[in-house]
Amino acid sequence: MPPKSNLAHVMPLTSLKFLTAKANRADFAVDDLQLQIEAHAPGVYRLRCGDGASLEEKPAGRGRAPAAEALLARPEAVGELAVSSMVREGAQGWRLEQGDIALEISPSPLRFSLYKGEHCVLSSEAEATLAREAADDACLWQLSLELDCDEALCGLGETAGDLDRRGQFLVSDLPAMRVLPLAWSPRGWGLYVNTVGRVEHDLAHEYPDYYTVCVHDRLFDVFLFVGEPTEIFNQYSALTGRAGQPGLWPMGVWLEQGPQQSLDELGKAASQFRAEGWALDAVRLAAPALCGFQADKPVFEWDAHRVADPRALVSSLQALNLQMAAPTFPGVLAGTPLFHEWEDRGWLLIEDDSGEAYRCAGNEYSAGKPFGLLDLTNKDVYKLWSERQRQWVDEGLGAPVCDAQYDIPDGITARSGETGAALRTLYPLLARRALFDAVAGHKTPQEGVIFSNDLFPAAQRFPWQAGPRVTNDWAGLEHTLRTALSLGASGVPVQLHGLGSAHHSAAGMTPELYVRWLAMNVFSANFAFQGAPGLLPGDFDETTRELVRHWLQWRYRLVPYVLGIVEDAVRTGLPVQRSMALAFPGDPLAHAWDTQYLLGPALLVAPVLQPGKEVKVYLPHGDAWWDLNTGWRYEGGTTWTVEAGLDTLPVFGREGHMLCLGPTAQHTGEFNSARILDEVWMFGMPEHSPVVMRNKIRVMQMQGSSYIKGLEGLRILPSEGLEVKRRGAEVRISRAR
């Protein structure tokens, strides 16, 4: 754990004076600084504090451009603010209202409280709400928030442990900590620090009753959200950027090349999938990078040592109806003529002390060879690299694979002036944005995926997030699930699970574990088989291979629903796999069941995470739930022990919802765009329009019946006690008489 900032000289800001109010902003003087409070959007307050010159600096100004332009998709305020004076506990203050949501702020000492109606959802610490230390051009800000004794803190990035982050200490710019900037509480508030500088989150680690945020930046710039988690995610993603659209083929099953597996062996494995009737859509090639700059010229070419005939490789995959993802990296090998030419031109990141290009240690993408990092803050370099990637896409690449979150030392500077934490934060964002421009920039609407394990502010804009490399045992299964749920709770909607890891021993991968892992992956955003001995379906007995076939048929039937959830994430910011705290904030008992999850709005999934058939399931309060395996109905707020064979998984449909399923297929190219759906399952009387890809099915209720349009030609399976009547293009669902 890194040392915490020395806060001995951080002075609390105490004196507050009202200056002026506008339609969506109120200005205050606080000590010798200025505090702006903005109604950024309904339920969203923006607090900015600094000297007057810094606050009024335009977005194009040096140093503020990255935060203003790179991190915010919607920098302008769209809310309305009503400001009034008030007296609370004998002291004068001000109340800044947005409908039933209000921010109350009082002076001497400076303190604020957030209200929804009459309910206070968040208060700052009374004696040290906001403190500041200024040193030269740097500033350190400290914000302290009070916590209830049992209040959970969620979000803030990836973890394989408890989804409640309370008790931890996190630093934003340390890649190993896997931090993201959104924090929220099921109590009804969220917080986002808008900066590319270092942010330290003390989540009741040192002081059990406080959440303390330390921000290293010239300006203090924080957004506070009020509302249910679904409302917070909607406003957060609108503020920082919505997820990109993946398209259809990435929703199919993937096969990853193992580190010791040749391209010929990978091709044979893919052919076996086709021969055995196991559905498959794409292959992901292993590192090192398959394409790169030549040693003496900026030409981007295939690695002839790995791929002697690129056209033959692409053609062989297309013959199997497979797409290809392949690794790349934003660098040029050190010691080459091109490295020296671009060093002289200033196109590589520079070491401050020597003025020479920074040399990254070799990694798996560069085949262990040291390389210089392209300065992607330079518009010419950014454009060149993106254009070279698009050239590769035009030659048959389906999706690039790129991890660009380097632990860049503090003494490295980009042309735009960023260094240290700012550069570590911005670099992976620029790399993934350049790749998304290459893959999706020439499409309308923009579609495409970029595989990466990088985490950074606004990571949710660029799908698809790669999962962790986990051990091939029951602990590894739980690890990959928890990372997906923690990423979803931090605003990243999609993780691609691996079915095990080719980078670990497969000795612990039993047939039972393999099938349980596959079943969970089927009910997720997506997943990939691993091309390594002991991890391919063909390495198991015939019974297991038949179960693989069974679950892959389920996966492709679920594609219309899962892609509908992803499309919904583009609009709302909600993840595909939703933790219990995110989906049911008002049911504290549900939060303890943190390996269950809601898959979209309609399905509750309880993965089997240990050997055996018996599984305990908690069905959240407020809804009834229908067992997909038995058709039985259960009341919410109850706990059950269910039995699940290897061909089943505890999955429950939420009453009032519908599940639209597609046909079985060997790859997404077999989907009929005119008939993407095959069957509809109903969980009680339909009340909600179903989530389904590119389809408009609408539910309307009237006089105790549901009238549905858009189900022409589909088989309908109603719940017990309901009857179906078709009248032209309309379906009527009513209670059986």
UniProtKB/TrEMBL annotation:
<feature type="domain" description="Glycoside hydrolase family 31 N-terminal">
    <location>
        <begin position="35"/>
        <end position="198"/>
    </location>
</feature>
<dbReference type="InterPro" id="IPR000322">
    <property type="entry name" value="Glyco_hydro_31_TIM"/>
</dbReference>
<feature type="domain" description="Glycoside hydrolase family 31 TIM barrel">
    <location>
        <begin position="246"/>
        <end position="562"/>
    </location>
</feature>
<keyword id="KW-0378">Hydrolase</keyword>
<dbReference type="GO" id="GO:0016787">
    <property type="term" value="F:hydrolase activity"/>
</dbReference>
<dbReference type="InterPro" id="IPR025887">
    <property type="entry name" value="Glyco_hydro_31_N_dom"/>
</dbReference>
<keyword id="KW-0326">Glycosidase</keyword>
<dbReference type="InterPro" id="IPR048395">
    <property type="entry name" value="Glyco_hydro_31_C"/>
</dbReference>
<dbReference type="InterPro" id="IPR051816">
    <property type="entry name" value="Glycosyl_Hydrolase_31"/>
</dbReference>
<comment type="similarity">
    <text>Belongs to the glycosyl hydrolase 31 family.</text>
</comment>
<protein>
    <submittedName>
        <fullName>Glycoside hydrolase family 31 protein</fullName>
    </submittedName>
</protein>
<dbReference type="Pfam" id="PF13802">
    <property type="entry name" value="Gal_mutarotas_2"/>
</dbReference>
<dbReference type="Pfam" id="PF01055">
    <property type="entry name" value="Glyco_hydro_31_2nd"/>
</dbReference>
<feature type="domain" description="Glycosyl hydrolase family 31 C-terminal">
    <location>
        <begin position="573"/>
        <end position="659"/>
    </location>
</feature>
<dbReference type="Pfam" id="PF21365">
    <property type="entry name" value="Glyco_hydro_31_3rd"/>
</dbReference>
